[in-house]
Amino acid sequence: MMSETISGGHLVAKALKAEGVDVIYTLCGGHIIDIYDGCVDEGIEVIDVRHEQVAAHAADGYARITGKPGCAVVTAGPGTTDAVTGVANAFRAESPMLLIGGQGALSQHKMGSLQDLPHVDMMTPITKFAATVPSTERVADIVSMAFRECYHGAPGPSFLEIPRDVLDAKVPIEKARIPAAGHYRASTRQAGDPEADERLADMLAHAEKPCILLGSQVWTCRATDAAIDFVRSLNVPAYMNGSGRGTLAPGDPHHFQLSRRYAFTEADLIIIVGTPFDFRMGYGKRLSPTAKVVQIDLDYRTVGKNRDIDLGIVGDAGLILSAAAQAASGRIENGAARRKEWLEELRNVETQAYEKRLPRQLSGAQPIDPYRLVHEINEFLTEDTIYIGDGGDIVTFSGQVVQPKSPGHWMDPGPLGTLGVGMAFAMAAKQARRDKEVLCLFGDGAFSLTGWDFETMVRFDLPFIGVIGNNSSMNQIRYGQAAKYGEDRARVGNTLGDIRYGEFAKLLGGYGEEVRDPAEIRPALERARQSGKPSLINVWVDPEVYAPGTMNQTMYK
Length: 557
Ligand SMILES: Cc1ncc(C[n+]2csc(CCOP(=O)(O)OP(=O)(O)O)c2C)c(N)n1
Ligand SMILES: [Mg+2]
Prior knowledge:
The protein is of the alpha/beta class. The protein contains 22 helices and 19 strands. α1 (8-18) packs across α2 and α8 crosses α12 (317-329). It starts with a strand and ends in a 6-residue tail after the last helix.
């Protein structure tokens, strides 16, 4: 009797299914079509995009939103090189995704086959794991191995290339190793060291002016509840960055944002959770030299990097924060009440900064003040709106003003600072969470990198509200040129056309509007919401003003 056979592409689909992946993002090519055929059998949706960069960013975005790894499938050679930026972005952002690339047949190895490149060599430095699948029997095994590697320490991307003959060949099903769902990788989280948790509790009990920074790993670890319980029970003011934004809702007594620099200078205990001392943190130099500094991170290599610390704990943010709060609760009062004045002090700084900026946020100027645009967006967001920022200066404005109302509802590229993530993140967010509203703020420069995938949003019926802060420039770069070379030499390589992106949206089958009057921003946003379509509200903002964050970049100092 003939035994049942299975091809490599179908084994890929089985391994994706085992991991819970229910969609792949892809742009087709002859090398990878057998994976599509496998997806048909396994009920995995195939979303085909217009550029492989978008496929990879969408896989990154899917991972962030769902907590499951994302998957992008691209063809060999240019398909894979186009996806490099998306993988690199996921690498710096600690996002678990798998990129599968095609490769010429093993039987033509190094003979100059179509689109042959050393993909694995190219991907090795920007992934946690990169390998060639050597035989059809091992396809599912190596896919599950790649997923396992994605979760080593802080998460990150993996890459696999599958030669065409390996993918297309059929092998007897009993010869293939097919790891079973839930049985091929650990299901545990890494707890911190109980002694270190005790020490943290002790430091908290003695601190008069503690503060905590809740970084992206708070969301990665789904540690929202633990973090909220920690700051409330110990009465610690909290700042949030990256995907950690929204852990506490705006208006929460422990939610702070505008007083961060003040807090880092005045605090006697600073707890950094799940974010590295990189450029966003001034490499740790801006923390008070007399404060005790505690760092909690999933990655051993991040702890103590770039500055000395007083206590470093490696592990899951939620388990560690819960253990420390628990340990502190046994002590008399644990100092919580004593910190009332400290919180009031910070609240005053916060209120002053807010009031100083408010006139700009309400400005009726034309061209529109970018502060007014981001203010309107902030007012427009609901608890169920996932906010995405993709741009330069305009997104720097939004970082100060826009507050996500719920955890996991803020997406930015992360420390790679990649322009062009927006459309892909919107795609992944809306596809994974149809119940959510998605709003993406683009710079006009950022939008034009990957904007054609607006068509994919239309084709797959993925409504979202796109807002373009249009200054017909790459303004964040222009600022640096003006500062360095003078205004008369500043307009080189950064000027874009006056593009009516609202018309572009309509051309591709979406909803679009042009806005020049600030009073029209809100009604236009409402109409985009009502349209039920992918939309672009093209808001003409003043190119002559820059965000303070742009002007303070260490790069220009
Ligand atoms: C892929 C990529 N290319 C180039 C840059 C460098 N860069 C940073 S900000 C910026 C300008 C972005 O212009 P736009 O999106 O229109 O935002 P604006 O600064 O004008 O508000 C550029 C080109 C980058 N971060 N990413
Ligand atoms: Mg611009």
